[in-house]
Amino acid sequence: MPQPTPPSVLRRPRLWIGTGLIAAVVSMLFALLYVGGNVNPKGNLRDLPVALVNADSGADAGGRHVNLGDQVVAGIQKAAEGDKSFDWQVVSREEADKRLGRGKVFGALVIPKDFSATVTALASPQPAPQGKAATPPTLTVLTNQSAGSIGSSMSSQAAQKAAHAASAQIGQELLKQAAAQKAPLPTAAQLKLADPVTVTVADGHPVGSRSALGLSAFYYALVLVVCGMLGANLVNSQVDTALGYLHTDYGPVRKREPVQHTSRVRTLAVGMALMLGMALVMGTLVEVATVGILDMDASHLGLLWLYSVATIAVVGIGSLALFAAFGTPGMLLATIVFVAMAVPSSGATVPLQALPGFFRTLSEFEPLRQITEGMRAILYYGAQADAGLTRAWASMGIALVAALVFGFAVTRLYDRKGLHRIPSPADVSETAAPEATAPAAG
Nearest to residue 340, comparing CAs of 226, 179, 425? Predict the structure, then answer.
């Protein structure tokens, strides 16, 4: 007699409702996080650090000593009182170079030593010596792509705007002085005096041509995080397969190992040990692929290798702890923690100072920000500890301890309560014994 065809699983409301709810939450969450963090960087911009260097030594003009550099600085600071978008940090040129070389500022505006002298020479009635043209006054804007291309661009635009505003202000004063002289100036000379300052743009901390315009550190860090998550998923499935909890399909061939009853604590420990081995392999191959094959600009290769292996191991162990505590939903939770919330709060593309307050708060503990800053220190800043490397190592250590404590505490609790993933033979026999000894009815 033919067996009746079982109803299609597509007719089960729970399948549609459960899958639909998960898909809805994931799509909404990713859209809100990814787009929400980057949709309005200028509107969210607060206190973007920019160095302001005044090296002007001043000049004598009209019987008095003037320092136009001080006037430029005062004008910028006054304008900044009503606009909190930028944090203008008045420092020496040496200190500005240090901050650029550690990613502490996104750019700089430099007023040179001869600024006052070159400006006052334009208003001087004495012509320049024959055969020697007067040196035009110049302000230099320094960029810093290593700290982030968008932040560097914002800094450069602000510095150029401030420089042109200073040029216009100085030009008004020069035109007044020229008008006080008896001889009228030609139109071309008046136009030159109206905007006398030349603004030049230079790279304050150059990065290599094969550094993805200062984004290679972010891409490398993101690869490490993804490798850690994928490695954890692989380890989790392979351990379950080895214990006989899952079967493996090789095309039409199915293979399943005998079930080995073991505790959740031991299962997690096995997975973490395997993850450490996988981190060694994956971290090595990531560096070989990026530096050896793709010729990415990199130095401190030994430190880069150690950092890569450690990052993959910590992310992988953290993911395994979530898997052990929450089961299948733990995989979704790991994706949210290590990707959905981490990428927009990393400060790698849009600077932290241009993110909404919620994402700035996330950046204090989200791993990708710390990992990226450590990677920038290694790739761009000579592995300086105070360029973000110390914070990265410390954050990684805290995350590792937290993952170990959380993972083993939860799995130990499950074991003590008898919440085994597969009932042991002893549990099965205890449950079946009363049924076997029960008297027959009637």
Answer: 226
- Give the tokens for residue 312: 């993959």
Structure tokens at 438: 């029960």
Indicate the burial class of 57 (C-beta count within 10 angstroms; 0-12, 13-18, 19 or more).
middle
Span 248-300, pLDDT tens digits: 887 888 888 888 888 999 999 999 999 999 999 999 999 999 999 999 999 99
User: How far is residue 246's CA from residue 272's CA, in Å, rounded to a whole number?
Assistant: 19
Domain with CATH 3.40.1710 in the chain: 44-124+134-203
Which helix H or strand E contains 255, and what residues bound it?
A: strand 253-255
Reply yes or no on domain 44-124+134-203 having CATH 2.60.40: no
Take residue 310 and report the two structure tokens written for it: 């450690």
pLDDT in tens, 336-377: 999 999 999 999 889 999 999 999 999 998 999 999 999 999
Residues sharing a CB contact under 8 Å with residue 188, sequence separation 6 or more, in sequence order: none
Q: Which residues contact 103 (CB under 8 A, 6 or more apart)?
A: 144, 146, 147, 373, 376, 377, 380, 381, 387, 388
